[in-house]
Amino acid sequence: MTRKTLNITDNLAAYLLQAQPELTPLEQRMLEETGRMTGSSMQIAPEQASLLTVLTAATGAERTLEIGVFTGYSTLAVARALPPHGRVVAMDVDAEVTRQAREYWREAGVEERIDLRIGPALETLDALLADGEAGRYDLAFIDADKRNYWHYFEKCLALIRPGGLIVIDNVLWSGKVADESVQDEQTLAIRDFNQRIRREPMVDHCLVPIADGVTLAVKRHTPRTRDHAGRFSGP
């Protein structure tokens, strides 16, 4: 047992991948083809895809949200764990790159589970709330523009049910969040998000150092309360 997260050396990282579920031929091709594209760093790692699949299955999710699709690897990871009637409302602004994602989903046999909406995600989330969808989703995955992370999170928090899960990617931001000399807008936004979620009374959360850092936040049935010093107390 150890009280500190292991340093992931190249050798250990290679072993980690070998110990993950074996990639399907389609997933392997997705990784290779996306790796040759501009912006390939936006694709999640295979271990994150495995995590999303397990979380979707473990929560018994049937209705999910995704903010940021790219070539559709994360969408596929969630969709394949849904029951046949399950749905992912997937949001992205790029109609061209998501056209490729649709091809992958079709080949994987999960296209009918995915409701892709092209346009600003904040507008799509507002439309869902206006349609009375608050509290009707089981899981949300956020992996889009960092400056809007907190806005995405607040709207997802309203849309998921108590006990539902929100998964947020890139919260370690290649280690930049821990380097105070880095002051660019995106790094500042993620630092701000990481601090805000610690003070959010409606979630229990954990930051997991997998890939570029993933935060898991479970929506509470009742908010946490604070003591006289402003610290959270009670169950």
Amount of beta strand: 15-25%
Structural class call reads alpha/beta
Helix coverage percent of residues?
A: 25-40%
Unreliably modeled segments: none
Number of DSSP helices?
Answer: 8
- Overall strand count: 9
Mean pLDDT: 94
Largest sheet: spatial strand order: 3-2-1-4-5-7-6
Please report the distance between the alpha carbons of the first and last residues: 27 Å
Order of helices and strands: HHHEHEHEHEHEHEEEE
Biggest pleated sheet:
7 strands, mixed
**Rg over alpha carbons:** 18 Å
Give the overall shape, derived from the CA principal axes: globular
What does this molecule look like?
- The structure is a single chain.
- The model has no long low-confidence stretch (mean pLDDT about 95).
- The protein is globular and about 55 Å long.
- By secondary structure, it is of the alpha/beta class.
- Helix 3 packs parallel to helix 4 and helix 6 packs parallel to helix 7 (about 150-160).
- It has eight helices and nine strands.
- The strands form two sheets. Strands 3-2-1-4-5-7-6 form a seven-stranded mixed β-sheet, sandwiched between helices.
- The chain has helices spanning about 10-20, 25-35, 45-60, 75-80, 95-110, 120-130, 150-160, 185-200, and strands at about 65, 85-90, 115-120, 135-140, 160-170, 205-210, 215-220, 225, 230-235.
- The two termini are about 25 Å apart.
- Strand 2, helix 5 (about 95-110) and strand 3 form a beta-alpha-beta unit.
